[in-house]
Each structure stands twice: as C-alpha cells, then as structure tokens.
Amino acid sequence: MKNTTHNKLNPLALAALTLLAGSALAQTLPEVKVTDTGKSSEGTYIVRELEAGKIGASVRETPQSITVITRQQLDDRNFTKVEDALKSATGVVVERFDGAGNYNTIRSRGFEIGSFMLDGMPIVQGPNYATALDTAIYDRIEVLRGPSGLLQGAGEPGGTINLVRKRALGLQSIGANVSAGSFGQLRADVDLTGPLNAAGTLRGRLVAVADDRDSYVDVLHTKKRAAYGTLELDIAPSTTLSAGYTAQRVDSTTDQGLPAYANGQLLDVPRSTFAGVAANRQDMDTRDAFAEIEHRLGGGALVKFAVRDVQRDNFYRSGRSNSAVAPNGDYRFETVDLQGRLDDRSYDVYLSTPWQLAGRQHKLLLGANSNERTSGDGNFAYGPTSTFNIYRPNYGYAYPNLVLPGFTAQTQRKENALYGQGQFSLADSLKLLAGGRLSWAKVATERTSDGVVTARSEPGRQFMPSVAALYDLNAQLTAYASYAETFVIQTQMDRAGALLPPRTGKQLEFGLKGEFLNKRLQTTAAVFRIDDVNRAVVDPVVSTASIAGGEVRSQGFELEASGQVAPGWDLLAGYAYTDTEYIKAPVAQQGQVFSPVTPRHMVNLSTRYAFRDALRGWSVGGGLSWRSEFYAQSGALRLVSGNYTLANVQVAWQANDKVNLSLGVDNLFDETYYEKVSGVTRQNFYGEPRRAVLAMKVRY
After folding, report:
1. Rounded to an integer, what distance in angstroms lies between the CA atom of residue 129 and that of residue 102?
2. In angstroms, what CA-CA distances link 46 with 40, 141, 176?
3. pLDDT confidence of residue 442
4. Sign of the alpha-carbon torsion through 259, 265, 271, 272
5. Average pLDDT in the 240-266 region?
6. In this predicted model, what pLDDT tens digit does every residue of 474-523 receive, in sequence order?
7. What pLDDT sits at residue 92?
C-alpha cells in the first residue's frame, strides 16, 4: 500500500476547483465590493449564526444542544489553550494525560470527541488530541453535543467541536496582548489585519504567539511558538479566494502523572510532586495549510470549495512510574521513547441555497467530502527500569540513550462521502429538517518492513440519517425533536483476523430553545438518549478475539443560558446531568457505569459586568465550576476523586479606547483536588493551585 496522501489532487477537488474558478473568472462585472466574510465574536457572549452547519442557521434554528465560546469569553478568562476553554462548556470533560495539558481526551455525554472541525471541515485528530493550536488564531469555538455524522462523518457519538479561525478583515486593526502570571508564565501575541491594496480587494491577517511558562509541578516547563497567516482576494464581487498557513512548535517536559497505592488510595503529597526526571521531553510540531474559494450566488446562495492539509509530528521521552506505590514510597520507574506522525488531508465542496416552494422559503445543503489520514505506528522503545521513591525524587537521573526502531507499520484511513440536508418550512411555525451522509470508509495497516497488510477493513457503505422538527411556540421559544446517527471504525479483530464492522451511535433528543431581550440572551434545555451498538467485546469462544455484540447507553439533560441579561451584564451558565451504563457487555460489566470519569452532575457559571456610569471603563467578572464525584475503575479497584468547586474572578480597566488592563485569578480559594484519576501505576493529576494572570491588551 503506497502512501499517496500528498502527491496528487483528489478528483473531487479538481472538478470542484475547476467549476468554481471558471464561474468566478467568467464574470465581468464593473465594480468590486469588499466583503468581510468573517463575523467576529469580540465583545459578545453569543453569535447570531453558526459556522458548523454550513446552512446559515442560528443556535435557535439548530436542533442540537450547543455551546459557543466566543472571542470575548476567551479574552475574559485568558484562555490560551483550546482544552482549558472547553472546560467551561456545558457537559464537557477534559481528561489530561500529561502535566502540561498538551495530551488530552475530550468527552461529551460520556463519549470521546475524536473528530474536530476547522471552519466546518472535519479533521481527524491524533491520539489524545496532542496538537491543539493556540486560541489566538480562533474567533470562537462551537461545541455541538450529540452525534454529528451529517457534518463530520465517522466519529464518536458524543459530539463535535468546530474551531472557527480568524478571517482577514477589510478594516485595518492592530492588536497586541502581553501577560504575566503565576508559575513563571510570560506570554505575548500580536494580531494584524487589514487591506493590502488600495481597492481593498486583497486583505491579510497575521497572528504570532510566544508563550513560556513553568508549572506548579517541579521541573515542568513549556515553550510554545505559533504563527498564523491568511490572505483573502476578491477575484470578483461575488467570489473570494482565501489561503492560509499555521505552524506551531511546543517544547515541554513530559509528566505522566502520579501513581497511587495498590488499594486504590490516591497519594496525599505536595501538588508539586513529580514522578519523572528533568531529562523528560515532549516535542510537538503542527503544520496546517488551507485554501478556500467561495462563490456567492443570487438570493443568498453560496458555493464553497475547501482543501485543508494537516501534518503532526510528536516525540516524547518519558521517565515515569510503572507500578503502585509501596507503603515506604517506592515504585517501579521505567523509561520509554516514542515518536508519532500523522498526515491528514480533506477536501470539501458544498452548495447552500434558499429556494421557494408552495409560497414558502426553504433551505438546501448539498455537499461532498473526502478525507485521507495516514499515521505511523510502532516507533517506540523501552529502556531499563529501576526503583524510585515518591518522597525522595531523583530529578537528575541519567536518562538512557534509547534507539527508536522507526515506524514498524503504517495505518491509512480513507473516507469519501456525500451529504445533504433540507430545511423545509411546512408552516409559519413548523420546520422539518431531513438529510444524511452517505460514507464509504476503509482502513488498512501495512508493515513497513515488507509491505504486508496485517489488518484491513473491507470498503463499507454507511448511511447516517439526521431528521428533526422545530416548532415555534411563540416569538421567543422553539421546541425541537431530533434523531441523528454516526459510526465509528473499529480496530479490534474477530477470530478470522478481520476487523470488526463499524459500531453505530444513535441519539434521540428533545429540547426547547429561547431568544429573549431582543435576541441578546439565548437559552437551551435538552434531554437526550444515545445508544452505541455493535461495540467490540471479547469473543466468548476465542478469548483473544472480539465480536461486535456490545451496547452502551448515555442519557441525561442539559440547561444553558448565554448572552446579555442586562446592559453591560454578560453571562454563560450551564448544567449537565449525564448517566451512562453498559447495556450489553460481559457479566462483570453488565449494568455498570460506562464512563465513570464523567461526573453525573456538572455546573459552569461565568459572568462579567461592565460599569456604565461613575465607574465607566471598569468591569468585574467571576464564575464557578462544580463537579460531582467521579472515578476510574479496573476490576474491583476504584480510584475516586471527590466532588469539588472552583471559583474564579476577574477585574479589568479600559484605560482608553486602545488599552485594557486586567487581572484574573483561577481557583480563587486554592482548592486541593484531583482533576484526573486513572490507575495505580500513573495518570493521576492534581488540579492546578490558585493562579493569577495580569494582562494588557492594546488595540489600534
């Protein structure tokens, strides 16, 4: 199997590009009008239109539970990592796998979110989402809970996250942020945008980031450098060509967490304790290139073609715990080096258009998508083990020189799809949404030594339906009901050595959405049930093989309010109740909790008030996050993190129309808690102690 990911143009892309370029260049209109296609979320806690749906729908018009983390919220909380921002989203759980928070698993409704979207285009992520780009390049983060097969293709049923990049603007703007904080944080970023010719038909944007910080954990240090550039060209009044490139380098210290006692009791040690050595390394490189051409037709219709290419390389060198801690503090210490590589290329073309039928206006979305992902496997090496003591660290340990064997295998995953959705206005108050995605997906693993394919799934066709109804109860409230599916390609094998067929996630959701105070305040209430069927379980006849006979269920409800509750007063508040269970599983798991790391109850509150009279220019904010008890379980052994509440506060002063100074404090009361629990050998992490950040933002 030859890797052809990057050496030829997909026929879908070639046809779409030819069509769009030809229609654009054929126009000879006399006047060029500059259009800023991006809609910034600066200065607000809500957005009027979602990027993810591609049909120009608002949050209220989308029959799905949604959180939008706007640029203003990112700035208010000094969120510089996508993972930290996602902790403020209703019902989202972020499980970190390293002390610096660079490797994470993100969950919603009990399931992992394995696929992300960039500007509405699905991008498969690497293991543990190890390549998140800095938030400085994004305008907002859209979190859609529940199966999103129509939009993302194959993916977990928990939901999807759409990252909306900053666009080049037609008005000149210069922004700079500098900040300093606890644990050695020093950061600066700049954001430049504006027209690049007299007519304003060529626009550009450049974002650059330098971020250095230590940690509350001994030895840990992270250095990040990122740059993002984009150009937009109006090649006709109705046609815009855009292209861009992002590069990010992260150099950090690997920390794989604390061990625990053999009985499951968590360690009671200082939060600075590090079960590693100073020689540990974690290097990550991400390169993201894209090109888009957008042609605006009459009456609000739009045709868009996009191609995006993402390359990710990572290397880590880790001295880590590999056993439970003895009563005297001893544990087994091992060394391991690992290198990873992931290439991902996606093409997407779609038409979004309103249309008239029976005297009513409807909307239609038709599109095609192609994705190819290639990853290197097996490039790791283990070194010698020794005995360490958790109370007497040996950070200067001489790390052995390990030789990586090179990638022993290569896994290639391909998916081509056609998708579409119609939004039909059946009456003044009633809309029906119906559509789906037809996907052809396959995966194969090949040994690099001899080219032998060791695992292959047969090309399979999967249809993922999506249907919903929305009914306007009055001018403020809309009730909805929706059914959606997604599928996940499985890597387990049956007794004949073949990969299992994909498993399917099916969700039924009912909800109520509202817009109040002249649409400045948005609310959502939703109840849901997800059944994930045909999951891999151990073959009862051949214990080394698997069968597709498992089923799990997640159900619960979510409440959220976002926007402006009064002049100057912004709010984002959410509550999630999630109950997960094994429905069909081995006897030991039957009826047990499927996702014990997902708290049953989660509350988030974030608010800001900008004074309008005598204290004009000043603003204050704060918030709370509460998590009920959660745990990790292996057999009869359970590691439990008790419920905890974290508080944060912010105060800001707008010195003039150009300069803003702010001070934010997270974990205000310095709560000591375990943010992540996993097992007795490692992967247990204390949450961050109280942290303060002083920032200055300058805008011209």
Report:
1. 8
2. 11, 11, 24
3. 85
4. negative
5. 96
6. 999 999 999 999 988 888 888 888 888 889 999 999 999 999 999 999 99
7. 96
Kind of pairing, strands 239-252 and 221-236? antiparallel
17 three-class SS: helix
| Interatomic CA distance for residues 494 and 233, integer angstroms | 52
Range from 104-118, 260-274, 308-322 carrying the lowest mean pLDDT: 104-118
Q: Distance between CA 646 and CA 463 in Å, rounded?
A: 43
Identify the pLDDT of residue 125.
63
CA angle 623, 625, 629 (to 5 degrees): 165
Instruction: Indicate the range of 32-46, 283-297, 387-401, 498-512 predicted with least confidence.
Output: 32-46
Q: pLDDT: is 136 or 115 the higher one?
A: 136
Single-letter amino acid, residue 550: G
Is 558 within 8 Å of 146 (Cβ atoms)?
no
SS3 628: coil
Residue entry with tokens 């979110």: 113
Tokens 């052995």 -> residue: 400
Tell me the one-letter amino acid at 624: L
Distance CA 546, CA 537 (A): 5
Contact between residue 382 and residue 336 where contact means Cβ atoms under 8 Å apart? yes
Q: Which residue has the tokens 């939901």?
A: 159
Q: Tell me, what DSSP letter sits at residue 132?
A: P
Residue linked to tokens 């001893």: 330
How many C-alpha atoms does 671 have within 13 Å on its Cβ side?
20
pTM: 0.90
Which H or E run contains 71?
Answer: helix 71-76
Write the pLDDT tens digit of every residue in 594-632.
999 999 999 999 999 999 888 999 999 999 999 999 999
Write the single-letter amino acid at 186: L
**H or E segment to which residue 56 belongs:** none
Q: Which residues contact 367 (CB under 8 A, 6 or more apart)?
A: 54, 348, 349, 350, 351, 418, 419, 420
Across the range 682-693, mean pLDDT stands at 97
3-state SS, 464-530, equals: EEEEEEEEECCCCEEEEEEEEEEEECCCCECCCCCECCCEEEEEEEEEEEEEECCCCEEEEEEEEEE
Q: How many Å apart are CA 112 and CA 132, to the nearest integer?
A: 16
Report the distance separating Cα 437 and Cα 418, nearest Å: 6
Pairing of the two strands 159-165 and 138-145: antiparallel
**Overall fold of domain 11-44+172-699:** Maltoporin; Chain A (2.40.170)
Instruction: Check whether 38 has a pLDDT greater than 60.
Output: no
Q: HSE, CB side, 13 Å, CA atoms: give it for residue 263.
A: 4
